[in-house]
TrEMBL record:
It comes from Microbacterium horticulturae. InterPro entries: FAD-bind_Monooxygenase_sf, FAD/NAD-bd_sf. Residues 1-21 are annotated as: Disordered. This is NAD(P)/FAD-dependent oxidoreductase.
Length: 503
């Protein structure tokens, strides 16, 4: 069933029910950046017989789900997009969340990709040479596919902290990724739990209308964002001359690759970046006690380095109370901090991140021997950060060791999607990964990560699986290096057994 049959429908909408076909070449699960990249890559290889399923009501992934005040990307906008779909009309150096969602909807329309929306993968099992994918929702049923591409994202399921009494809080309480727009927080006493990437964007906006108490378990390294709007003349130039935009993208890419040194533990580069962060803190937070509370005691790069020009001023403004310890308990409307501090509030926003190292979809996918969750019970593993032993004809995009701490994750997704499509086009049949090759690749990742701040920098981060202490989210190298790993002629590097006569 070709996606082209839906080309006249508005992007991101299914105006009438579609029946699941009995069989397709490939099923793509998810319609965010990864799902759209996979669909475009398949098309580029002449593969039209695929289906995209999406549990949400539209394309967009995390940029559909996250609508909190101030949501934006911290990768420059002209690098945070598909290479073959430049957008000369980004409003500024860093795109807002609603702009990115609109961009993805526009790309889906231009590429005639019409996912089955409101359709959830119940489970997928490898059975007699095919993947049998069961779906519920708007398009319920079972479909057989030669290949399964998981494009489910890594930041999809909110992480809810295990805090005694949290469920008893009598007022509004919600995760930042499930923002409740029906709740009016103007004039309210609002607790924000967490000081990660979401909080540094959210708190300055929330402090404009509410009395904010911010619970900080661990301070973050924060560097200047230096955001600015693109002028009408600049946007006109980008539109008129694609070469100008291409040069800008190349410059941004090179800047991102250069950041790898400071994030991964190069002593001189990390010291220089740390000095920038400390100067930024000193310039924006005059109060010494507050500055001490906001100064990290771990290596630069150990946790995600954040960008903000507004967070520190908000904390210095008097509109935000910093509780420099974790939330320990909830007693009715009173939040009790690990320090013993007590804060009575009207509403709670959980900016507590996502279930990143234990992906929710892993329980739903059963290969030749067990589920992905069981295979990954000591942390996610793979070969080439894309394929997994015991799971024939399965590709995982944005999965094990495919994220970045220094550059645009879209670059990694595109490399994985292109590899998967090349492999499907040039190596039909059943493709099985050699378990020894997966073990060797995992050992290589572990060796590369051992000396980095992500492992040895003295902090807890969401890149490391606490069950094994392994780095399972980040790729411990540059984008150039990752591309070189995957960029072979048709994927011949992949140590697989190919059964040409498979169905």
């Amino acid at each position: 069933m070709s996606e082209r049959s839906e080309s006249k429908r508005p992007p991101g909408q299914n105006p009438e029910p579609r029946h699941l076909p009995d069989r397709v070449n490939a099923v793509i699960v998810g319609a965010g950046f990864a799902g759209l990249a996979a669909a475009m890559a398949l098309r580029a290889q002449g593969i039209d017989d695929f289906l995209v399923i999406e549990r949400g009501p539209s394309v967009g992934g995390t940029w559909r789900d996250n609508t909190y005040p101030g949501v934006a990307c911290d990768i420059p906008s002209h690098l945070y997009g598909f290479a073959n779909h430049p957008n000369p009309q980004w409003s500024g150096l860093f795109a807002r969340g609603d702009e990115i969602r609109a961009y993805l909807e526009r790309v889906a329309g231009l590429e005639r990709i019409a996912p089955l929306l409101n359709t959830t993968m119940l489970d997928a099992r490898w059975d007699d040479g095919v993947w049998r994918v069961r779906c519920s929702g708007a398009h319920a049923g079972e479909i057989a596919a030669s290949t399964l591409l998981l494009a489910c994202g890594r930041l999809t399921e909110p992480k809810i902290p295990d805090v005694p009494g949290l469920e008893s809080f009598p007022g509004p309480i919600f995760h930042s990724a499930r923002w409740d727009h029906t709740t009016d927080l103007r004039g309210a006493r609002v607790a924000v739990i967490g000081t990660g990437a979401t909080a540094v964007q959210l708190v300055p906006e929330l402090a404009k209308v509410a009395e904010v108490t911010l619970f900080q378990r661990t301070p973050a390294w924060i560097v200047p964002r230096d955001d600015r709007a693109y002028s009408p003349a600049e946007r006109a130039s980008f539109t008129a001359d694609p070469a100008v935009l291409a040069r800008l993208r190349d410059e941004l890419y090179a800047e991102g690759e250069a950041r790898f040194a400071s994030r991964s533990g190069d002593r001189d580069a990390a010291a220089a970046a740390r000095a920038v962060a400390l100067q930024h803190l000193a310039e924006q937070v005059p109060d010494r006690a507050l500055r001490r509370a906001l100064t990290p005691d771990y290596a630069f790069g150990c946790k995600r380095v954040l960008l903000s020009d507004a967070f520190y001023p908000a904390l210095s403004s008097g509109a935000v109370t910093l509780e420099a310890s974790a939330l320990a308990a909830v007693e009715g409307s009173t939040l009790v901090a690990a320090s013993g501090g007590r804060h009575t509030v009207d509403a709670v926003v959980l900016a507590t991140g996502f279930e990143s190292t234990e992906q929710p979809y892993a329980d739903l996918v059963r290969g030749e021997h067990d589920t992905l969750a069981a295979h990954w019970d000591r942390g996610m593993t793979s070969f080439g950060s894309t394929v997994v032993a015991g799971f024939p004809n399965l590709f995982v995009l944005d999965g094990p060791n495919a994220s970045l701490g220094h550059n645009s994750s879209v670059l990694m997704i595109e490399a994985q999607a292109a590899y998967a499509a090349r492999t499907l086009a040039r190596h039909p049949g059943v493709r099985r990964v050699d378990p020894a090759a997966e073990d060797a690749y995992t050992d290589e990742i572990d060796r590369a990560a051992a000396s980095t701040p992500w492992i040895s920098g003295g902090c807890r981060n969401w890149y490391v699986d606490e069950r094994s202490g392994r780095l399972t989210l980040l790729w411990p190298g540059t984008v150039d290096a990752f591309r070189a790993t995957l960029d072979t002629d048709g994927g011949e590097f992949l140590p697989v057994t190919i059964e040409r006569g498979a169905r």
